[in-house]
Amino acid sequence: MIPDIMATAPRGLRVALSFDQSQFVRAALRDVVQEAGTAAILVALMVLVFLGSARSMLIVIISIPLSILTAFVALYLCGQTINTMTLGGLALAVGMLVDDATVEVENIHRNHAMGKPLLVAILDGASQIAMPTFVGTLAICIVFFPVVLLSGVAKFLFTPLALAVVFAMLTSYLLSRTLVTTMARYLLPERHDERHGDGAWRRFIAAFDAGFEAVRERYRTALGLFIARRRFALGAVAIAIAVSSLLLFIVGEDFFPAVDAGMMRLHVRAPTGTRIERTERIVDDVERAIRGIIPADELAAISDNVGIPVSYNLAFYQTDSIGPQDADVLVQLQPQHHPTAQYQQAIRTELARDFPDTRIYFQAADIVRSRRGSRTAWRASPA
Fold it and tell me: Whole-prediction pTM value?
């Protein structure tokens, strides 16, 4: 639309899109995808270090993209879309998607190290852990069952996340029973080799295994001493639970987590009867104060709407304006900025001091807070 406007606009007129909420949505989706990719890389490195074999790592991590792609198909069949909640669920499940495959490959290595032929080691390893891994997968999936009992906004928020996790987990178990065993048959060597390669990599894996074994022995000793002292163990657990329960009174409650979208919205209400010209001068002073608080390199734009909007705009523009004494001030920050809440607090304090006769308060500005039912969140001066 902007190119069409510019084609007919007078020469020298500059038109730019401000307060674009889609930037926040795209950034959220990009961040979730990036975190999922980072989690997959870390999982791959962990598997490589603990198994000591690049082939075993490949067998394990191949289940991640296949499980996610299958989850996308299942979400489509259930009428869901790719959004921040479904992507968040898949990012949450990335680390768990390799559990079944990791246990499968490790058990195959264990049976192979006992001198069994590769095919026999694969069949025995798969059959030995079929039921435990199935129960473990169902235990994770059943945690999300209460989501079906939710209602209202919570149902629409968490149902896509739960479905994404469940579909991905069930697919990972199915792949551990089929694809993992098939790849093990063709990628693992026929004869078991404990050397984990040659050179520096072999020495690193040997040192890591020795260090991990030493830590495990210390942990076993400490755990044995802890369990042997029954009263002390139960008392320590009870104290830990009691102290943790106190956090319920410290953390606080909210309907939705705070989101820093880099936007602020203030409503300015001068004394009743103020002419619109006087309101405009007050808003100019408010804007000047805001520019004095927010550095120029972090401030993208400030937009003022003074008075009552045109009647047909009221259906599309949320405002508390009831007369010429009212105005809305919208502030957009650059992508790289200090915490928005920090600026809100500074603006609240300074405006309350400099405009004692004017009622100024913050409203929901971003797409998240404006959809969660809260219109007036803060006040800059007494009502």
Answer: 0.67
